[in-house]
Write a structure and sequence with these properties.
Helix content: 40-55%
Strand order of the largest sheet: 1-2-6-4-5-3
Radius of gyration: 33 Å
Distance between the termini: 106 Å
Strand content: 15-25%
Shape: rod-shaped
Largest sheet: 6 strands, mixed
Mean pLDDT: 83
Low-confidence stretches: 1-7
Number of strands: 8
Structural class: alpha/beta
Length: 267
């Protein structure tokens, strides 16, 4: 268990104890969900103590958290007044970058949060996707694929998370052009419990049908003039007559439509 001190700071083997209330979260923390993780961590700290100090930087008479927000939340939950920290001298920009990198490298970071963190990291450093890949030990294609997720509207991202879909499910949705169609497909995925391969096939079929419909629609534009169809019928009847077939046609104007009757003798 951690011992508390009356002093606000006390150096012990280069570790300083700081009042919990003097530490504020890093504004660039990419992680949004903590609740499910804090209870277990609090139990561990209660039984074994804090095994790894927090990392902070001094800001006036307070401290900005750089790494260790889950540990800080667990300490608050347990009612600790002081927490062990390592104070480092760092600019606001580098603090933001360190917080982002520390979280990006954690495997349990939600994939949309990871994509947002990557985008922020690239913006802060002004780096390319290739530079970010090298810094994080990932391939450039991995970085590019994660950033592509941010093309999905927030509404779709939230729905993906609510339904417990995977990152590959989310990437497959990018092929659909509208939010409405994406929502429709998410409902199908969820109700049918489709895996990624089945989802990709479903989306391919939807796109193929939409393409066929669009092609038919484009071709139909050339035949909007009813006279073209009427002339086609008349020419067909004339060709039959020229071939010795005693065919005839009758045009009947009805309310709202034209009815054409073509009679072709069978003998």
């Amino acid at each position: 268990m951690l011992m508390t001190f009356k002093n606000k700071e006390k150096v012990v083997n280069k570790v300083v104890e700081i009042e919990v209330d003097k530490i504020f979260p890093n504004p660039y923390q990419p992680r949004k969900q903590f609740d499910d993780e804090i209870n277990g961590l609090a139990e561990s700290i209660k039984s074994n103590g804090l095994l790894q100090p927090l990392t902070v930087r001094k800001c006036g008479d307070q401290y900005e958290l750089i790494a260790g927000e889950r540990r800080l939340r667990a300490m608050k939950m347990l009612g600790y007044e002081f927490v062990q920290c390592i104070i480092i001298d760092m600019t606001e920009r580098n603090s933001a970058v360190m917080a982002l990198v520390e979280n990006i490298q954690r495997k349990d970071l939600q994939f949309f949060d990871e994509a947002i963190a990557l985008e922020k990291l690239i913006d802060f450093y002004g780096m390319t996707q290739k530079d970010a890949a090298v810094k994080l030990g990932k391939s450039q294609s991995t970085i590019a694929n994660k950033l592509r997720l941010l093309k999905l509207p927030v509404e779709i991202r939230n729905k993906v998370c609510e339904c417990g879909l995977t990152e590959r499910h989310a990437r497959a949705l990018l092929k659909l052009k509208t939010t409405e169609k994406q929502l429709e497909v998410i409902d199908i995925i969820y109700s049918r419990r489709l895996n990624v391969d089945s989802t990709e096939k479903l989306i391919e079929n939807i796109i193929e049908k939409a393409s066929e419909f669009e092609s038919i629609h484009r071709r139909s534009g050339a035949f909007k003039d009813i006279r073209l169809f009427v002339n086609t019928i008349n020419k067909a009847v004339e060709m039959m007559k020229a071939a010795g077939i005693n065919a005839d046609s009758e045009k009947i104007q009805q309310d709202g439509y034209i009815e054409y009757v073509v009679r072709i003798p069978t003998k």
